[in-house]
Amino acid sequence: MDLSVRIGSLLLKNPLIAASGCFGYGVEYADVVDLSSLGAIAVKGLFLSEREGHAAPRIVETPAGMLNAIGLQGIGVRRFVSEKLPELRARNATVVVNVCGTTLDEYVEVSRILSDAEGVGAIELNISCPNIKEGGIQFGCSLNGTYDVVSAVRKVTRLPVIPKLTPNVTDVPSFARAAEEGGADAVSLVNTFLAMVIDIETRQPKISNVVGGLSGPAIRPIAVRMVYECRQTVRIPIIGMGGIADARDALEFMIAGATAVQVGTANFVDPFIWTKLVDGIRDYLQRHRIARVSDLVGTIDTHASATERSGV
Amino acid sequence: MDLSVRIGSLLLKNPLIAASGCFGYGVEYADVVDLSSLGAIAVKGLFLSEREGHAAPRIVETPAGMLNAIGLQGIGVRRFVSEKLPELRARNATVVVNVCGTTLDEYVEVSRILSDAEGVGAIELNISCPNIKEGGIQFGCSLNGTYDVVSAVRKVTRLPVIPKLTPNVTDVPSFARAAEEGGADAVSLVNTFLAMVIDIETRQPKISNVVGGLSGPAIRPIAVRMVYECRQTVRIPIIGMGGIADARDALEFMIAGATAVQVGTANFVDPFIWTKLVDGIRDYLQRHRIARVSDLVGTIDTHASATERSGV
Amino acid sequence: MPVDVAAEVIVNRALSADYNLVALAAPAIAAAAAPGQFVMLKANAGFDPLLRRPFSIFEILRDGGGTPSALTILSKRVGPSTNLLYDARAGQRIACLGPIGRPFTIVDAPVEGWMIAGGVGLAPFATLAESLRARRVETTLFYGARRAAELFHLDFFRALGVALVLTTEDGSAGETGRVVAPLDRKLAARDRQAPVMLYACGPEAMLAATARIAARHQRPCQVSVERVMGCGLGGCYSCVVPMRGEDGGRHHVRSCIAGPVLAADQIIWD
Amino acid sequence: MPVDVAAEVIVNRALSADYNLVALAAPAIAAAAAPGQFVMLKANAGFDPLLRRPFSIFEILRDGGGTPSALTILSKRVGPSTNLLYDARAGQRIACLGPIGRPFTIVDAPVEGWMIAGGVGLAPFATLAESLRARRVETTLFYGARRAAELFHLDFFRALGVALVLTTEDGSAGETGRVVAPLDRKLAARDRQAPVMLYACGPEAMLAATARIAARHQRPCQVSVERVMGCGLGGCYSCVVPMRGEDGGRHHVRSCIAGPVLAADQIIWD
Ligand SMILES: Cc1cc2nc3c(=O)[nH]c(=O)nc-3n(C[C@H](O)[C@H](O)[C@H](O)COP(=O)(O)OP(=O)(O)OC[C@H]3O[C@@H](n4cnc5c(N)ncnc54)[C@H](O)[C@@H]3O)c2cc1C
Ligand SMILES: Cc1cc2nc3c(=O)[nH]c(=O)nc-3n(C[C@H](O)[C@H](O)[C@H](O)COP(=O)(O)OP(=O)(O)OC[C@H]3O[C@@H](n4cnc5c(N)ncnc54)[C@H](O)[C@@H]3O)c2cc1C
Ligand SMILES: Cc1cc2nc3c(=O)[nH]c(=O)nc-3n(C[C@H](O)[C@H](O)[C@H](O)COP(=O)(O)O)c2cc1C
Ligand SMILES: Cc1cc2nc3c(=O)[nH]c(=O)nc-3n(C[C@H](O)[C@H](O)[C@H](O)COP(=O)(O)O)c2cc1C
Ligand code: FES
Ligand code: FES
After folding, report:
1. A309 touches chain C (CB under 8 A)
2. d(Cα A191, Cα A169) in Å, to the nearest integer?
3. Does the N-terminal or the C-terminal CB of chain A have fewer CB atoms within 10 Å?
């Protein structure tokens, strides 16, 4: 049974990627998970320099989900390269670095530094974080901005470039297309949904940044729809995510059109989820006599539905 | 204690409205609920003529939510006026009619018929149903479309005109503004989020229409954010909804900026929810020594958060 | 006029690895219920699962004085809510809304009542059999299951004087195969003049087959359909069945209020 | 190296309308735990609630041979997860991930150990007291609660030879008022040369007051902080505490891996 999938030039041993911001820099989990057993690890978003992020409280639980506004706290790309990357390399982790920027130049510069470092497998461009005012989402909410960032980074690196798209737009597929036209090797979707929770007793927002990003099972049906739509629109691989909590959910994203998937929030609930996911996917492929997991990608059958519909 | 709120010229005895599509034509609930005890009843969306809607399965449960693609089955506005409205009137229900159309003319015509009928309190323009191909959302996803429908209907009726906005756009407040400029008395938000669920065993969508609209607690934090944003943008009242399941949730929407709220999915779970909601709101106002529920609208306090933020 | 009761679980008995029988203290609902009606249950607080689920009223339990005190549900595990029902403990409370829906139309002798049940589709027939037998209607239960161990409550029906025609898919009891086969044979063998009312409940394919057989033998047939139901009260339009209207056109009928019992010959089985 | 155990509830004892004590069969975690460490619990399957919650390890239970067999949690009801813990039944399984976090640094005699607990902030001090007393450290527990009935486990501490200084807000036991008042007085009265290590756990305001008092009296102080925690393993950055770094700057430190026990004088209390 072949669980491997390909994202541009990057071969993943399985389609399971730890979602950015939900797995620290990977090294935090070295004690509980064999880092090399994951398809890849998308490390926490990195700017050029350190950032302290927002004040606590930074998260609040919501129905079948959670809201976060971490504010992209991070150690900056240079410290990442010197302090974290060697351990990740030593542990044979496939590393996707989530790249942030407040300007186009910053995206380019961070990507350049990563391209020169040893042990980076791909660059995921975070143009979709809902939790910071400057940068990021301003690129991710504009077709030109998306195209510009992708093509600028494309020019400075041979690593696969994977812009991560925001769901907070009317038409996600058009952004996927802009990314493809800019030279992206794949797109990741979705980042979190802009949302808020108010404490009715104090009438204050429950997280310090007022608004934050919604993740977890609650958003899964919306995310699956977006992956499905993008699959109809672009030819590059899609990395799907949003609320995956078990192997069935991961398979649902793949059937909708994702070549690989990321798991974020569910890893908080169960840091040992990864072997369960791999086992669940294996079991499914066996039951359905599918030899390669990649054969499953985008195999959704809407025909029966359409027939019924036309019958009405 | 004063629970009444005003939506344009319409005075509601309390801010609780049964959400369109979740309460039939109201008469179905006459046995279990005193229809006159609700602030209002938004009846199921009506076109000019009858519609049979999509084939079953039309709903599927999702984490803390549900997906529906009913396809706006309905008896048409004329049969509604002759067969349902008299009973609603007899039961002293305040009636909001959810108006659908495949063309601008249809919205106008349906609205005109309702304006001539006795017992209609307001018109809610459904320009946001994600489940039908023609019409509806095509107006709701375009600023000009929104403006055009609202101003056209505005011209033919004295009833309050309340366009219902879709959450499936990048910038909901700009649609609220277009509605306001078109002469809307209020806006309702949100309609459901376009979403899908796939049965991994059959690889077919779990509802016959392939995609459907996500409602229920899962979407509440996103809906609250959208109400909050719109409250900063327009001056007309906002009718907030999306996942309200108890009085606390209703109050959260009001604090975020909603003058009234609608409850849909939670009414399925508990058709006797209405008295619980009224009691819960009363209790809260008493504890907080607030005389009028309308004094609560938009009183969110983001100041403490901002201070904390600037401290970082 | 349905009521909502936080019904205490009186007893929960596992009948097999999948089936269980749970008794709920809901006297008001038990007193008002007619055969074929159902309740909407929610066995958990909170949102996981979120919606109620429909279940036929299986039996009406009575206190010493004969007053209805409780109802039972025959449940088959297929997902989260039926899992919760399977694991329900005595003393726990389950939200129970009912009675809901259009019941069976009960016939009088000399019409015979033939009930056709597939699997958990047995559920509405315990009360129907009681009503029919109370009117001294000759009653037969055609009952098919996967295996002998999943044929429940046979003694109950025997004690009522209901004739049993059993089938199992694996042949471990009764005739091997589907329950519609003996139905078809017995109808063929029956005198055209001797009236029979058919009542069917079970998987959609079984209902469709029963409807075809009923039509072929020109017998009236009431079927209790199963649709995913969001509300049970006509509010959501999720539960529709395509039916032929008087105008001959295709209409989507809400099975929670116009059903669950519907006339087989008006349903469009596609 | 934390492990995840589907720990069986051995016993759950309600201590008051809000507090309960639940014993979990998690020998591997019990054996590895150090005072001040915590576990991440999930008492339900499914998504309501979704995330685990952090709880201090209250006691380590041992079998006849002295081998750790279980741990207990002292829980106070404040929301959905603590409600589930309050209602937990023996036999039920609770997902228990641990031990996690940086424990207290244990002192040796002649340093005295003074523990300051507010409400459920008592939780980490049972194991700490045992460790301190095992080293024959003179140990005092300053313990404040709302009322006498919410002062728990006093006999346990007395039996260990821990001196108790109790306060209640309503004056129903010990001194009336907050627990930091007697702490302040006793520190003022104490010989500057006689070393004391302060250990504090409780509401944020109490911790801040303790930190101020410690600073004023120039005593080292370890506080166990409480932050909303998404993961407990350093993955989410939700649990940060603003601290002064070596560079003098303000840094957000993840209290799940750098804490929960932190040096009071490095925290920026704002
Ligand atoms: C009027 C009526 C009476 C019923 N009586 C009984 C009964 O007496 N005993 C019993 O065990 N079951 C009965 N059912 C079916 C029962 O409602 C479903 O098995 C139940 O909803 C499944 O819930 P779940 O959460 O366990 O699984 P889910 O995950 O909700 O569903 C599991 C599978 O069952 C299907 N399903 C869900 N709801 C329904 C539904 N309402 N009808 C048909 N299929 C559904 C789903 O599509 C899915 O494939 C009845 C259904 C109806 C409409
Ligand atoms: C290291 C650590 C050890 C803890 N030890 C214990 C213990 O031994 N016994 C005990 O009863 N409680 C302890 N807590 C607090 C406990 O985690 C919270 O009470 C619990 O998460 C509440 O969950 P809930 O679902 O019941 O309520 P929720 O609805 O999640 O929360 C209710 C309220 O508590 C606040 N809250 C939620 N999580 C935390 C948190 N992690 N820290 C502080 N406030 C929070 C929320 O903001 C909200 O205002 C500890 C917390 C930490 C960080
Ligand atoms: C606490 C938290 C922090 C996150 N940080 C980042 C980040 O740094 N960069 C990024 O691209 N996405 C970030 N995300 C988004 C996730 O990578 C993912 O897109 C989202 O959570 C949806 O997946 P999930 O539902 O599996 O969590 C973060 C999410 C969470 C919950
Ligand atoms: C089954 C169903 C049918 C609906 N039909 C309509 C409709 O006809 N017109 C409309 O404007 N909104 C319709 N909606 C949307 C609701 O009115 C409401 O906007 C949405 O469900 C969010 O609220 P909730 O989370 O409280 O359900 C429907 C929703 C559901 C669940
Ligand atoms: S179940 Fe809602 S209309 Fe039938
Ligand atoms: S709780 Fe996730 S980083 Fe500390």
Report:
1. no
2. 11
3. N
- Domains in chain C, CATH or no CATH each: 3-100 (2.40.30.10), 112-266 (3.40.50.80)
Q: What pTM did the predictor assign?
A: 0.96
| D49 interaction partners in chain B (CB closer than 8 Å) | none
Contact between A190 and A145 (Cβ < 8 Å): no
Average pLDDT of the segment spanning C71-96? 97
CA distance linking residue A161 with residue A152, whole number of Å: 11
Residue B73 CA, chain-centre distance (Å), reads 17
Residues with CB under 6 Å of ligand 6 are D 229-232, 234-239, 254, 256
User: What are the structure tokens assigned to C133, written together?
Assistant: 């037998």
A270 at the D interface (CB within 8 A)? yes
Kindly compute the dihedral angle of the four CA atoms of residues A231, A237, A242, A247, in this order, to the nearest 10 degrees: 100
Helices (H), B157-217: 172-181
Contact (CB, 8 A) for D260 and D100: no
Confirm or reject: Cβ of C227 under 6 Å from ligand 1.
Answer: yes
Residue C37 tokens, joined: 């009606």
Q: Which of C68, C170, C162 has its CA nearest to residue C122? A: C162
Q: Is the N-terminal amide bond of D49 cis, ω within 30° of 0?
A: yes
Q: Which residues in chain C have Cβ-Cβ distances shorter than 8 Å to B35?
A: none
Cα–chain-centroid distance for residue B174? 18
Which residues in chain A are contacts of D42 at CB distance < 8 A? 269
Residue B276 host element (H or E) = helix B273-287
For domain B5-50+73-193+215-310, which architecture applies? Alpha-Beta Barrel (3.20)
Query: For residue B237, what are the contacts with CB-CB under 8 A and spacing of at least 6?
Result: B5, B6, B7, B8, B185, B186, B187, B259, B260
Q: Which pair of tokens denotes residue A112? A: 């350049």
Structure tokens at C108: 């009088």
Amino acid D247: pLDDT: 83
Q: Is B126 in the pocket of ligand 4 (CB under 6 A)?
A: yes
Q: Biggest alpha carbon distance in chain B?
A: 63
Report the C-alpha gap between B23 and A52 in whole angstroms: 49
Q: Which two tokens stand for residue D27?
A: 């020998």
List alpha helices for chain C, DSSP H. Answer: 27-32, 80-86, 125-134, 154-160, 180-189, 204-216
The percentage of chain C sitting over the pLDDT mark of 70, rounded to a whole number, equals: 100
Per-residue pLDDT at A135: 56
Give the model's confidence band at C245: pLDDT under 50 very low, under 70 low, under 90 confident, else very high: confident
Close Cβ partners of C248 (under 8 Å, ≥ 6 residues apart): none
Q: Which residue of chain A has the CA closest to C46?
A: A63
User: How far from chain centre, in Å, is Cα B44?
Assistant: 10
Task: State the Cα torsion C175-C177-C183-C188 to the nearest 10°.
Answer: -90
Q: Which residue type does A230 have?
A: C
B130 pLDDT exceeds 70?
no
Residue in chain C lying closest to D46 (CA): C48
Report the C-alpha gap between D228 and D78 in whole angstroms. Answer: 13
Full DSSP string of D159-214: HHT-EEEEEETTSSSSEES-THHHHHHHHHHS-TTS-EEEEEES-HHHHHHHHHHH
Average confidence (pLDDT) over B9-15: 97
pLDDT of residue A304: 66
Distance CA B256, CA B225 (A): 8
Q: Give the side-chain half-sphere CA count within 13 A for C219.
A: 30
Q: Write out the two tokens for A164.
A: 């991560």
Which of B16, B22, B77, B128 has most ligand 4 atoms within 8 Å of CB, for mutation? B22
ipTM: 0.96
Q: How far apart are CA A62 and CA B64, in angstroms?
A: 10
